[in-house]
Amino acid sequence: MWLAVAAAALAQTAPPLLAARWLAPGADPVRALAYAPSECLARPTDPDAALAVEVGRAAFRTPLLLGGQAARAGLSCEACHRSGRGNPDFAFPGISGPPGTADVTHSLFSTRRGNGVHDPRPIPDLSGPAADLKVARTPDASALKTFTHGLVVEEFDGRAPPQPVMDGLVAYVRALDPAACPTEAVAPVRLAGYMDDARRAFAAADAMAGRGEPDTAAFLILAARSRLALIDERYAAFPGERARLAGAARRLGPIAEALRARDPAAPTDLRRWIADSHALERRLAAREPKSLFDPSHLAAAYGRRLPR
């Protein structure tokens, strides 16, 4: 019953962008949705370590990782930890207390760890000081591996992903470092950024397929497709562009299945998709100034007026 009420409440106030559904009342949607914290990622120089980080980065950004109601609501690790940071504007109905908190032991998210107590906790910045993230910063990664597995499988009722995905998540979180933060604290959310996220996931998928990890490769293809969904919702006023996006996204399902089946033609099909995506991006970029990537159009969608 409670779940139905919460779902109805979300549906009645469904805004143009999915992420707005868990914005705190009174939060500025333009500031929260047109801009994002800068990612503080220290990329490893070792190729194997760098690939693990890229696998984890893609998994961190997709709802595919989590299970149960969290996944159905469209939540990913990034929903709470934007760019691997915190999210002071996060407020999910029934799950949060003050903005920037979440109760991950709520029975809505977890049938295993639901404790019947409303005890939301502050969402940590995963790029924060070592003293605040002892599990992530210990030299031995085993504690973080155990914590991450429990978070996915127990706190969110997810199905355990392929082991390289779990290992990648650990590698990604450990690569987040306050010393790697860019000078700019925030950056605009742009089409190019989402497309870059997708292509990085595709490159990781190609590499994992070459290493004999077809299930991980398929997971990464579908993770990348979820970034296309975030682009799609920003082009609500352009049905032609959305149709092209949808067509491109449909091609990814068969590629993922072919990778999983170890079809030798699958890597070539993936590289062809990547090559074709540049033309798609150019077409979308032409409309970007009038899409919901643009702060002024985003403000209009939420009935706001930008300051002059």
UniProtKB/TrEMBL annotation:
<keyword id="KW-0349">Heme</keyword>
<keyword id="KW-0408">Iron</keyword>
<feature type="domain" description="Cytochrome c">
    <location>
        <begin position="51"/>
        <end position="177"/>
    </location>
</feature>
<dbReference type="InterPro" id="IPR009056">
    <property type="entry name" value="Cyt_c-like_dom"/>
</dbReference>
<keyword id="KW-0732">Signal</keyword>
<keyword id="KW-0479">Metal-binding</keyword>
<protein>
    <recommendedName>
        <fullName>Cytochrome c domain-containing protein</fullName>
    </recommendedName>
</protein>
<feature type="signal peptide">
    <location>
        <begin position="1"/>
        <end position="19"/>
    </location>
</feature>
